[in-house]
Design goal:
- This is Peptidase inhibitor I78 family protein.
- By secondary structure, this protein is of the alpha+beta class.
- The chain contains two helices and three strands.
Length: 109
């Protein structure tokens, strides 16, 4: 009798441990927004100094000029359809271009 109660108690505990618990609803963090850029203190890559180049056609010589004038440590050209790491580097200048190689955005990252 005692063994039967022990088995029943053990089975009950195992089943209750497997019971579903309600998880809190996921937080809605909204759409992704990259770290701020421009004239604020977060502009470690110097993107604010070269914003006037948005709309120009990208070339290697323009890329070198952007790197030099911004004072960034590295330059990354981001083209549509390519994969890139998501690691954020404050000293890296990201230059986003469209299919026609027109610069659409310049920021840090």
């Amino acid at each position: 009798m005692f063994a039967r109660c022990l088995v029943t108690l053990g089975a009950t505990l195992m089943v209750s441990a497997c019971a579903m618990t309600e998880s809190p609803p996921p937080r809605d963090s909204g759409p992704y927004s990259p770290p701020s850029r421009g004239d604020d203190a977060e502009d470690r890559c110097g993107a604010g100094r070269v914003q006037d180049r948005v709309g120009l056609t990208y070339s290697e010589s323009l890329g070198q000029a952007l790197l030099q004038e911004s004072g960034a440590g590295t330059l990354r050209v981001m083209r549509p359809g390519h994969a890139y790491t998501l690691e954020y580097r404050a000293d890296r200048l990201n230059v986003r271009v469209d299919e026609a190689e027109t610069i659409t955005d310049i920021g840090c990252g």
